[in-house]
């Protein structure tokens, strides 16, 4: 009489009904790898990679003014976060970009972010990633690296109060097909501008001004670059306030 033998199984094999789905591989460029990289960066303490970062970490440099007066270039966003912890961010635009490759279309998010402390520091950055959050984070870090001081003043002939509430003189900047003109205004005027330009000037610390925009003003990224270009033209003139 033949004896029947049974073999115990720990569980269903992959591919059978009820089998668990395979774990994410975390290959470079995948959504899982981006999430893991962002989580690791948030948990790990800052380790300076540049000489300037080491000086900031050791407390030998305590302000951004010292960095710009010495002509050094910021290459780590953590430097700005350490020296100006109250920096605010504004997501200007987030869009979808596609690239045609041999394997098919590659879809990513493209973000434009502006940063500022509403007291004379302003920056604009761009970033692309498969995930929207990663694109915004990259754009924010890029904006920190592009930070510039904004020289403010009272350039309005109607006011002449001598306080730092507007721009010192009429300035203009260009980004793509957009051109933005910023005109000094008297105290109490406010920002006579569209919503996007008003938010950007508020981040830079400008409270009163007239503005004019020309070109394809529906392109938010071009407006941000135009405002940044205008403020950058005066950031090295005089004393930073």
- The global form is flat
Strand content: 15-25%
Identify low-pLDDT runs.
1-10, 21-26, 236-241
H and E order: HHHHEEEHEEEEHEH
Number of strands: 8
Question: What is the residue-averaged pLDDT?
Answer: 83
Task: Provide the spatial order of strands within the biggest beta sheet.
Answer: 1-2-3-4
How does this structure look, described?
The chain has 241 residues and is α+β, with helices and mostly antiparallel strands. It has 7 helices and 8 strands; from the N terminus they run ααααβββαββββαβα. It has a 4-stranded antiparallel beta sheet. Helix 4 (77-83) crosses helix 5 (132-145). Residues 1-10, 21-26 and 236-241 have low confidence and may be disordered.
Feature tags:
single chain; 4-stranded antiparallel sheet; disordered N terminus; flat; 241 residues; 4-stranded mixed sheet; 24% strand; disordered C terminus; 29% helix; alpha+beta
List the helices and strands and how they pair.
Blueprint: H1 31-43, H2 51-57, H3 64-69, H4 77-83, E1 88-101, E2 104-116, E3 121-129, H5 132-145, E4 148-149, E5 171-175, E6 178-184, E7 191-192, H6 195-204, E8 209-214, H7 220-232
Parallel strand pairs: 7-8
Antiparallel strand pairs: 1-2, 2-3, 3-4, 5-6, 6-8
Helix pairs in contact: 2-4, 4-5, 6-7
Summarize, please.
By secondary structure, the protein is of the alpha+beta class. Helices cover 29% and strands 24% of the residues. It has a domain at 50-85.
């Amino acid at each position: 009489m033949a004896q029947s033998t049974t073999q115990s199984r720990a569980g269903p094999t992959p591919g059978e009904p009820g089998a668990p789905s395979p774990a994410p591989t975390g290959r470079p460029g995948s959504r899982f790898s981006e999430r893991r990289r962002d989580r690791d960066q948030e948990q790990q303490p800052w380790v300076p990679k540049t000489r300037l970062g080491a000086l900031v970490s050791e407390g030998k440099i305590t302000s951004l003014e010292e960095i710009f007066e010495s002509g050094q270039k910021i290459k780590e966003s953590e430097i700005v976060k350490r020296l100006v912890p109250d920096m605010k961010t504004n997501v200007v635009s987030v869009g979808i970009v596609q690239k045609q490759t041999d394997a098919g279309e590659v879809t990513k998010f493209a973000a434009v972010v502006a940063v500022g402390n509403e007291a004379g520091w302003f920056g604009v950055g761009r970033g692309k990633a498969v995930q929207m959050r990663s694109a915004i984070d990259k754009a924010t870090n890029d904006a920190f690296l592009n930070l510039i001081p904004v020289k403010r003043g009272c350039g309005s002939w109607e006011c002449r109060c001598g306080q730092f509430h507007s721009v010192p003189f009429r300035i203009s900047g260009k980004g793509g097909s957009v051109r933005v003109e910023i005109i000094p205004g008297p105290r109490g005027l406010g920002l006579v501008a569209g919503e996007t330009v008003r938010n950007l000037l508020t981040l830079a610390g400008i409270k009163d001004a007239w503005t004019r925009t020309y070109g394809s003003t529906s392109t938010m990224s071009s407006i941000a670059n135009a405002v940044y270009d205008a403020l950058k033209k005066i950031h090295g003139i005089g004393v930073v306030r």
